[in-house]
Amino acid sequence: MMKWLLTYQKKILELVLFGYTLLLSYWMLFGFHRMPSSEYHYNLVPFQTLQSFMDIGQFNVRSWLINVIGNIAVFVPFGLFVPWVRGRNSWIGSFVWFLAGLLILELLQLLTRRGSFDVDDLLLNSIGFACGYLWWSVRERLTWSRHLIGVTLCGGLFGILVINISILSAMHDGQRQSDLFIEKKADAVIVLGSAVHGDALSSILLSRMQTATAWVRQFPEMPIILSGGQGPGENVSEAKAMRNYLELQGVIPKHLLLEDRSTSTRENIQNSLQMLREHGMKSGMILIITSDFHMYRAKMLMREHGVAALGLAAPTPVGVNLFYLIRENLALTKDWLLSFF
């Protein structure tokens, strides 16, 4: 079997490359239910399209993954297969072959009006080719164990990238939604707790409560749950500390519940939803008030319970952003793994 594979290796790779090219061509022309546009679309200005995807106000994780990461990842196989099929260790020749085929695909998108001719696509696709070619060029120097380590590291880095894109997307979604829009959609509010130092709110919890106080002043009729138990070094539960803060601000919600048993975000969500049900309150759409870096995980855990959530993000105090972003990467990975059990 191995002898047969070695004999016809080049023919097999040619068929794989041909099949992959056909599949990618179909995806580029007909994927995502594409229909012919009424106009021809093109971009000849380098980095113009990329800049629009990096614009915070327009940031969308799905679009970012498809149009940036996707445009790199799906072209990595060409960097591996084109030089192998050509049988020559010349990156210039291989890249010319690749670029010629890529230009044909981009022109087909333009002429059929099922996409656009975009120089930024050419740039991202070429980066994908370069990654694949780099791997191909060093393949003979790598043992299988090193190949495995390399694939694992690449997968890990890609996972970290996806996690941080998700966190950033949720941060900006939570900052964009207007109060009136949320008020019309939400049935109740859950404010997630954070550390209390003795009786004093930590800077993170203070930021969350400042955001929550402004909301309660505007919409005092909406049911609100303050969620957080009591941990080491805390004289009172986080929920009670949050209620004390509201009272000091002269803000008394009409329907206020304290959930003071939870010790994690997962328990915050679970216990708060159970409390809403026990009090006969609607929980079809919940507004979550928490820190911007924490918003994605809170919404993810809410979806596990089949409940839709809106977010109102509290800004993270300057000076602790990096620490909490790293911490959130670890916590998000943990909660994602727990969701499988």
Folded structure, characterized:
The protein has 341 residues and is of the alpha/beta class. The chain has two domains: 2-141, no CATH class; 177-338, HUPs (Rossmann fold), CATH 3.40.50.620. Helix content is 61%, strand content 11%. It is built from 14 helices and nine strands. It has a five-stranded parallel β-sheet. A hairpin with a 2-residue loop joins strand 4 (196-197) and strand 5. The mean pLDDT is 80.
Task: Briefly summarize what is shown.
The chain is of the alpha/beta class and 341 residues long. Helices cover 61% and strands 11% of the residues. The strands form 3 sheets. Strands 7-6-3-8-9 form a 5-stranded parallel beta sheet.
Number of strands: 9
Could you give the order of the helices and strands?
HHEHHHHEHHHEEEHEHEHEHEH
% residues in beta strands: 5-15%
CATH homology superfamily name of the largest domain: HUPs
| Ends apart, CA distance between termini | 41 Å
Arrangement of strands in the largest sheet: 7-6-3-8-9
Structural class: alpha/beta
What CATH calls the topology of the largest domain is Rossmann fold
By CATH, the architecture of the largest domain is named 3-Layer(aba) Sandwich
Taken together, the total number of domains comes to: 2
Major β-sheet, in short?
5 strands, parallel
Task: Return the CATH class of the largest domain.
Answer: Alpha Beta
